[in-house]
């Protein structure tokens, strides 16, 4: 609590806020994916992001496609429950559509800090008994794990697919590492963790300051890339599935190892 | 069947006989390929044998029924699935249009060598920044099918513009939802529909119809998404409001009532006193009987907190016998103190009579459950009678306390506060500040729950008064009304705390030091000068100084508090509202004050009647509200495992209490700050 960035991180100071006046990362992401679940403030932010980081749209799509492949992979491995943290606006190709088209009673819990994204997801999932969306801050994993929605849908004794796609780079070290450690610790053996994360050490680094500045004006903290070694730490004791931590568009196969404009890496690990 | 067994077999009167049932059963068993049950041969068999046979048959029958059900369900599922598929394909009237994305297995491999039109189309959309939520191969095949469908529509006579329009709409439904994808798509389709450089009129018409369908669907999709976004926004705002009101209502219940006795609490008492003060009848008086139970502390120590609560409830019942009158308010206003507020006092004689009755009610010892023992209550009553005009709430309560001390010194068990100027008995004692002995300051860790690290230290200093016992800064101000003394002592506490914080860590990120500052007693602008001087003198980065506001300071007093608090906040120090939820008006005022955080005692968010889960839910709700207001929430007084367990999973930011470390000396704290792991360990227990 004395991390003085705490309050600004929450950034929801304007409680009865007009949500449309302030860009949100969930809606910026939707705009990058070509959705219309966004306000002009979000589209403006997306446009500025693209000006600074022309590959941002491509990265958003690559993240989304990775999410798709990771869920398919976990389904193949027998996982029937998913916890998608930082799910954003449940736009095209969301987890429950992917999972439930193959396993109708697959369980999916979406978690996001953005109340609008959660209200939205709640509307979409109203008639879906096996999926729900909860509003929670990933910095407080106990609040997620203890949430009635999570308890109702996820069986803690059967493998769970934990999805942390394109969200950890918004969370500062002090919060991110303990929170992910706690979340992973709560998973039963045989569970999987999928992470995609902005990586430092790339060409896109040059734009980092500008991007950070842009996100500072949204409802979340700054996006900060981490090194591969730092990203690996998130997996903890879970064992990375082949091919390991690779460029997000090259998981689990394909590509030549060249990043292109990509500044995002991804991997899926299995908890022994 | 049991009837048949009990009464033997009735003669064959054309009704159902045992033999007939066996035969019927065997017929069914034979049809299903099961062995028949033994037949009519043993009608005279022992009852036990018949029982066994019947039981056996029943088992088999159950098995058969279960198997039949399962089969039926399977068939039904398959039929339903088939029906769903039929409905789906029927909906897409153009026969060529696939019902959704095409899995590779459902289509023959592409006949033509090289890049199919589907592949090209897919590549073009991807290049235009379209994300299709499916594997590339599936997308390409589906788009290929669309292209074929369009070619067939162009070949038809007349051209099937309706189908082309629908393909356009389907393309949007598939996920091609960016206008950027349209130019490449149109070029590609015109190439596909035309022959070399010539594009026939039907082909152009089909392409136009496709574009119209695409545009219409894209517009519909955009509007639908915008509408649902607005709905979601409104819903989020509504939910936030109702969550706010909900927790406010629950919090107020806890805030105004004592969970142990069900009586009003001090906050409610103060509220009622204030209302009395605003009355318009200057002749009206209020009376107040402060009842203190001297024996209760011993009960708690010897027999535990539950026994103490039992005695409190018993005392509350006895007091209610005296206080049953709409004009009276009975409140619990301390660990072992009650107040009977008489809102329309008939004068001292009236109050004295009440005090007598209260004393009599409490003369009998209270029984201790399960022990057969009783405990003497050692009650004393302090009485005050004041006119409502110009009533000073704090003052009245202090006067009652002074009367209580007199009652303790006397023999009747009660005493009335004497408002006349002090005689020699009271001069320099109850209201004087001479003889104050300053104790050493103590520092109690405040732990950040997320990391388990010590985030800061809560500093307290106590002064020993020759007659009033140990007092903190606020009490000194209340009891003496001596502003200069309060200011002088506050200044020295501030200086000491800031210097100590610098001694531990001179950087910006060192632990904060928090202290309770009686802002109103010191007054504006002195209080701002005091804080500024302490910061300048010590060099402590301002954000490392946290000022806790409680009591009167925590009650918004309009523009004035705004001015004072804004001036303090401008120094860069952090302001935290303590005793969050005690009295006060709407939570909304929190938004208007320049606050950084809220503090609440663990006891306030704990109600033994409701249990841990309910408390935890309440706390989680409060935390969400605090966070939504951009404030942190710290719970203090977390002294035992129970209180600690209530924090788990609530998102509460910080905690303070014996569970996280007792108040210590500067030296002990220094050691603690060097060994963060110890505290982290304590925190892990919260998580478990």
From TrEMBL, chain A:
Top-rank lineage group of the source organism:
Bacteria
Protein name per its UniProtKB record: S-adenosyl methyltransferase
- The scientific name of the source species is Actinoplanes nipponensis
Automatic annotation (TrEMBL), chain B:
| SMART domains registered for this protein in UniProt | EAL, GGDEF
Q: Which residues form the GGDEF domain?
A: 284-419
Xref: InterPro entries: Biofilm_reg_signaling, EAL_dom, EAL_sf, GGDEF_dom, Nucleotide_cyclase, Rev_trsase/Diguanyl_cyclase
Superkingdom of the organism of origin: Bacteria
Q: Which Pfam families match?
A: EAL, GGDEF
Q: Where is the EAL domain?
A: 420-677
This protein is called: Diguanylate cyclase (GGDEF) domain-containing protein
Source organism per entry reads: Actinoplanes nipponensis
């Amino acid at each position: 609590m004395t991390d003085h960035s705490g309050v600004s991180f929450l950034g929801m100071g304007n409680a009865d806020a007009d949500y449309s006046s302030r860009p949100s990362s969930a809606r910026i992401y939707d705009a990058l994916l070509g959705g219309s679940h966004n306000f002009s403030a979000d589209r403006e932010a997306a446009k500025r992001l693209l000006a600074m980081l022309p590959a941002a749209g491509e990265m958003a799509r690559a993240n989304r496609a990775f999410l798709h492949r990771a869920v398919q992979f976990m389904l193949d491995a027998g996982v029937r429950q998913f916890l998608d943290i930082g799910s954003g606006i449940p736009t095209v190709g969301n987890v429950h559509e992917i999972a439930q088209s193959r396993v109708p009673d697959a369980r999916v819990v979406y978690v996001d800090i953005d109340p609008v994204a959660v209200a939205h997801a709640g509307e979409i999932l109203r008639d879906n008994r096996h999926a729900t969306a909860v509003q929670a801050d990933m910095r407080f994993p106990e609040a997620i794990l203890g949430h009635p929605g999570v308890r109702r849908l996820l069986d803690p004794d059967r493998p769970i697919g934990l999805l942390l796609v394109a969200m950890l780079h918004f969370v500062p070290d002090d919060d991110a590492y303990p929170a992910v450690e706690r979340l992973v610790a709560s998973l039963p053996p045989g569970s999987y963790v999928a992470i995609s994360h902005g990586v430092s050490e790339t060409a896109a680094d040059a734009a980092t300051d500008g991007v950070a500045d842009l996100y500072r004006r949204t409802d979340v903290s700054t996006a900060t890339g981490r090194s591969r070694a730092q990203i690996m730490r998130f997996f903890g004791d879970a064992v990375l599935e082949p091919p390991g931590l690779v460029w997000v568009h090259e998981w689990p196969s394909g590509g030549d190892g060249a990043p292109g404009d990509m500044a995002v890496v991804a991997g899926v690990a299995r908890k022994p | 069947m049991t009837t048949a067994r009990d009464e033997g077999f009735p003669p064959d009167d054309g009704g159902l006989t045992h033999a007939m049932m066996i035969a019927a059963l065997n017929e069914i068993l034979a049809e299903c390929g099961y062995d028949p049950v033994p037949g009519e041969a043993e009608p005279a068999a022992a009852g036990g044998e018949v029982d066994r046979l019947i039981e056996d048959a029943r088992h088999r029958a159950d098995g058969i029924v279960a198997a039949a059900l399962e089969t039926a369900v399977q068939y039904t599922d398959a039929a339903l699935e088939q029906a769903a598929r039929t409905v789906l394909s029927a909906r897409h009237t153009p026969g060529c249009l696939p019902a959704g994305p095409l899995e590779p297995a459902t289509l023959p491999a592409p006949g033509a060598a090289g890049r199919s039109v589907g592949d090209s189309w897919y590549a073009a959309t991807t290049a235009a920044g379209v994300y299709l939520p499916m594997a590339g191969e599936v997308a390409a095949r589906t788009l290929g099918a669309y292209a074929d469908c369009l070619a067939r529509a162009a070949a038809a006579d007349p051209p099937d513009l309706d189908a082309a329009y629908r393909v356009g709409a389907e393309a949007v439904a598939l996920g091609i939802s960016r206008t950027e994808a349209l130019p490449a798509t149109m070029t590609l389709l015109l190439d596909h529909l035309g022959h070399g450089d010539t594009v026939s009129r039907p082909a152009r018409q089909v392409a136009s119809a496709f574009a119209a369908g695409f545009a219409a669907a894209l517009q519909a999709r955009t509007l639908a998404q915008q509408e649902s976004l607005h709905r979601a926004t409104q819903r989020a705002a509504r939910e936030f409001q109702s969550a706010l009101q909900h927790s406010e209502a629950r919090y107020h219940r806890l805030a105004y009532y004592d969970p142990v006795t069900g009586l009003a609490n001090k906050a409610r008492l103060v509220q009622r006193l204030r209302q009395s003060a605003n009355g318009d009848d200057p002749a009206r008086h209020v009376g107040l009987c402060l009842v203190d139970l001297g024996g209760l502390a011993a009960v708690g120590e010897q027999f535990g907190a539950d026994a103490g609560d039992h005695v409190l409830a018993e005392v509350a019942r006895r007091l209610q016998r005296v206080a049953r009158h709409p004009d009276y308010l009975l409140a619990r206003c301390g660990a072992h103190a009650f107040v009977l507020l008489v809102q329309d006092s008939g004068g001292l004689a009236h109050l004295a009579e009440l005090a007598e009755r209260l004393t009599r009610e409490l003369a009998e010892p209270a029984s201790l459950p399960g022990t057969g023992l009783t405990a003497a209550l050692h009650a004393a009553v302090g009485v005050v009678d004041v006119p409502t005009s110009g009533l000073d709430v704090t003052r009245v309560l202090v006067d009652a306390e002074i009367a209580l001390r007199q009652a303790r010194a006397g023999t009747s068990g009660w005493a009335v506060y004497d408002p006349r100027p002090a005689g020699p008995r009271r001069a320099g004692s109850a209201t004087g500040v001479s003889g104050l002995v300053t104790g050493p300051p103590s520092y109690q860790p405040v732990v950040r729950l997320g990391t388990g690290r010590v985030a800061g230290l809560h500093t307290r200093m106590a002064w020993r008064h020759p007659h009033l016992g140990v007092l903190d800064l606020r009490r000194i101000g209340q009891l003496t009304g001596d502003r200069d003394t309060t200011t002088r002592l506050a200044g020295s506490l501030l200086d000491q705390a800031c210097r100590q914080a610098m001694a531990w860590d001179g950087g910006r990120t060192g632990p904060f030091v928090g202290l309770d500052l009686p802002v109103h007693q010191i007054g504006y602008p002195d209080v701002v000068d005091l804080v500024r001087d302490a910061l300048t003198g010590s060099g402590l980065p301002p954000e490392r100084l946290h000022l806790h506001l409680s009591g009167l300071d925590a009650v918004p007093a309009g523009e004035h508090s705004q001015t004072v608090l804004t001036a303090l906040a401008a120094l860069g120090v952090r302001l935290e509202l303590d005793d969050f939820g005690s009295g006060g008006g709407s939570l909304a005022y929190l938004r208007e004050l320049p606050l950084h955080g809220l503090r609440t005692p663990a006891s306030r968010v704990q109600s033994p009647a409701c249990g841990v889960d309910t408390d935890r839910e309440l706390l989680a709700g409060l935390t969400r509200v605090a966070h939504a207001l951009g404030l942190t929430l710290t719970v203090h007084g977390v002294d035992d495992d129970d209180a600690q367990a209530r924090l788990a999973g609530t998102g509460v930011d910080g905690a303070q209490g014996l569970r996280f470390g007792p108040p210590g000396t500067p030296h002990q704290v220094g050691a603690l700050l060097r060994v963060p792991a110890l505290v982290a360990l304590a925190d892990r227990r919260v998580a478990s």
